[in-house]
Amino acid sequence: MTEETPGFEEQPDVPSEAAQTPDDAAKGAGSADKAGPAAPAGDLEQVALQAQLDQVRTALNERTADLQRLQAEYQNYRRRVERDRVTVKEIAVASLLSELLPVLDDIGRARDHGELVGGFKSVGESVETVSAKLGLQQFGKEGEPFDPLVHEALMHSYAPDVTETTCVQILQPGYRIGERTIRPARVAVAEPQPGATAKGGEGEAAAPDEESGGPEEG
């Protein structure tokens, strides 16, 4: 016969979950609440980073556009300065050479009269060489058609051997620098004889009558 210990009773086995106290249950619930919003917080952080990235990209695009615009303005400025520099240089050279034209005319007349000799010849040729290096070009030749843009007619006559207004004598040569005319060539011009074309036409028209032998007798 088994003896029982007075005042001690066996307790049935209780699951561990059921054995939790109310405080433990509250702590577990709090942990669950904290773990739940973790995902939405990460999404908000990603959205904020994306917004910052968009702002940086917008600012970069604006600065890039400003830089491109500034570079284009600088290139235009450089081209404008270079163009103005060339124009100023051409004007200065043209002004200088315009003052030398009478000297060149004297050298040319001396050469035509056989007086360009000795030291004067050397000086004259040096002046012409320097002028040519600066871009000065002489123009105007006998026999070329008259062009009022580059020729100035000082004398006028008629000639039977020309078919259009022609420069028959160069009184003073013209000069240009590039496409800029410094002084037109001063020339004597000749035009065809008045009525020469009409007489030629009458002669050609009369030829068939002569060949036909005149009108037939009735």
Describe this structure in words.
It comes from Streptomyces niphimycinicus. Homodimer. InterPro entries: GrpE. Keywords: Chaperone, Coiled coil, Cytoplasm, Stress response. With 218 residues, this protein is of the alpha+beta class. The chain folds into two domains: 96 residues, Alpha-Beta Complex (Hemagglutinin Ectodomain, Chain B), CATH 3.90.20; 69 residues, Head domain of nucleotide exchange factor GrpE (Nucleotide Exchange Factor Grpe, Chain A, domain 2, Roll), CATH 2.30.22.10. The strands form two sheets. The protein has a three-stranded antiparallel sheet with strand order 1-4-5. A hairpin with a 2-residue loop joins strand 4 and strand 5. The protein is elongated, with a radius of gyration of 54 Å. The C terminus is likely disordered.
Protein topology:
Layout: H1 22-35, H2 38-112, H3 118-133, E1 136-139, E2 151-159, E3 166-172, E4 174-177, E5 180-183, E6 185-192, H4 196-212
Parallel strand pairs: 2-6
Antiparallel strand pairs: 1-4, 3-6, 4-5
Report low-confidence residues grouped into runs of 5 or more: 5-9, 14-19, 198-218
Broad shape = elongated
Number of domains: 2
Spatial arrangement of strands, main beta sheet: 1-4-5
Radius of gyration: 54 Å
For the biggest sheet, the summary is: 3 strands, antiparallel
Q: And the CATH topology of the largest domain?
A: Hemagglutinin Ectodomain, Chain B
Could you tell me the strand content as a percent range?
Answer: 15-25%
Distance between the termini: 191 Å
Proportion of helical residues? 55-70%
Oligomer: single chain
Q: Which structural class do the helices and strands define?
A: alpha+beta
What is the ordering of alpha helices and beta strands? HHHEEEEEEH
The appropriate CATH architecture of the largest domain is Alpha-Beta Complex
**Count of discrete alpha- or pi-helical segments spanning 4 or more residues:** 4
